[in-house]
Design goal:
Number of helices: 5
Strand content: 15-25%
Order of helices and strands: EHHHEEEEEEEEHHE
Radius of gyration: 23 Å
Number of domains: 2
Strand order of the largest sheet: 2-6-7-1-5-4-3
C-alpha cells in the first residue's frame, strides 16, 4: 500500500529560485509535447508513447534548450508521464482533452523519484534533488519498514511551500465479520453534507460563509491597487491565505469525520450520485 506525508518547507532565496526554474521547466516540457502530440493527431501521425517522448527530451530537447539540464531530470520525466496519463484518461472518456499550462492559472508543482538516497526526511529538514537540505516542519516520522518512493513539491498561491513524500509499505488485510448493528448509510444533504440512516445530520460548518465577509473586504482592497504592482501582488497573497485557511478548515473537518465513521462502523453505504448534476 502507499501513503503520503505532507510537510511544510521553508526554502532559502536560492532554493526558491531553483524551485521556480523547475516549475517553469516542467511546464515548458509539458506544453512542448502537448503541442507535438496535437500536431501529430492533426496530421494523422501515430501518437508517441511516454518513453519515446522522454527519450526525445533527453536526446534532443535538452540539446536545444541547455537550461533544462539545470533542473531535476526526474521532474521533467514525470511531467511527460503526467501528460501521457492525461491522454489515456481522454481516450477512456474519463476526462477532456489535455490543456496547456499557464504561468498564472496552473498549479506550481513537480514530482521527483527516489534513487540512491537523493530524497530523505531528516530532523527538521527534507533532502531533495538539486535543492539539498530544506528546512521543514517534520510533524510525523516514517514507521520502520516503509520504503520511500517519490516526493512532490508544490507552491500554494499564498506563497507557502510543501512537500508530499510518498511511502510504500506491506500490510495484511484480514476479513472482518460485518455486524448488523455496525452498518450505516449516508445520504447526501446539500445543507449539512449528509444525513445518516439513523436520522442524524452531519451539520458540517459553513467555513466559506464564515470567511466570506473577510474575503470580500480583501477583494475590494485589491480592486483599489494598481494592476500587477507590488501592493497588488501582496494583496493577492492575503486573499490566497484567506481562501487557503477556508480550504484547510474544510479538509480538517472531513478527515476527522471520515476517520470517526471508519473507526465506528464495519460497513458504510453511500448513495451513488453525480454531483455535477445536483
Amino acid at each position: 500500500m502507499n501513503k503520503a506525508y505532507k510537510y511544510r518547507i521553508y526554502p532559502t532565496v536560492e532554493q526558491e529560485k531553483q524551485l521556480a526554474d523547475t516549475f517553469g521547466s516542467c511546464r515548458f516540457v509539458y506544453n512542448h509535447y502537448l503541442a507535438l502530440q496535437s500536431g501529430n493527431h492533426e496530421q494523422g501521425k501515430k501518437h508517441l508513447g511516454r518513453t519515446a517522448c522522454n527519450n526525445d527530451c533527453n536526446r534532443n530537447l535538452k540539446q536545444e534548450y541547455p537550461w533544462l539540464r539545470q533542473v531535476d531530470k526526474f521532474a521533467l520525466t514525470n511531467a511527460i508521464y503526467a501528460l501521457e496519463a492525461a491522454y489515456q484518461r481522454f481516450y477512456r472518456k474519463q476526462g477532456g482533452y489535455p490543456k496547456f499550462k499557464g504561468r498564472r492559472r496552473s498549479r506550481m508543482s513537480y514530482t521527483t523519484n527516489f534513487t540512491n538516497g537523493n530524497i530523505a526526511v531528516l530532523d527538521g529538514e527534507v533532502k531533495l534533488p538539486k535543492l539539498g537540505k530544506v528546512k521543514a516542519v517534520i510533524h510525523r516520522a516514517m514507521p520502520e519498514g516503509w520504503n520511500l518512493k517519490q516526493a512532490t513539491v508544490l507552491k500554494e498561491r499564498d506563497g507557502s511551500y510543501y512537500v508530499s513524500v510518498l511511502y510504500e509499505y506491506q500490510t495484511e488485510i484480514t476479513p472482518q465479520e460485518v455486524r448488523p448493528e455496525r452498518i450505516i448509510g449516508l445520504d447526501y444533504k446539500s445543507d449539512g453534507l449528509y444525513m445518516d440512516s439513523s436520522g442524524v445530520c452531519c451539520n458540517m460548518p459553513h467555513f466559506f460563509r464564515k470567511s466570506q465577509k473577510k474575503l470580500a473586504k480583501a477583494q475590494r482592497k485589491l480592486k483599489q491597487k494598481q494592476l500587477h504592482s507590488a501592493n497588488y501582488r501582496k494583496q493577492q497573497k492575503k486573499i490566497a491565505r484567506t481562501a487557503s485557511k477556508t480550504a484547510d478548515q474544510r479538509k480538517d473537518f472531513l478527515h476527522k469525520k471520515s476517520v470517526e465513521i471508519a473507526n465506528q462502523y464495519d460497513l458504510v453505504c453511500v448513495e451513488d450520485l453525480d454531483m455535477r448534476y445536483i
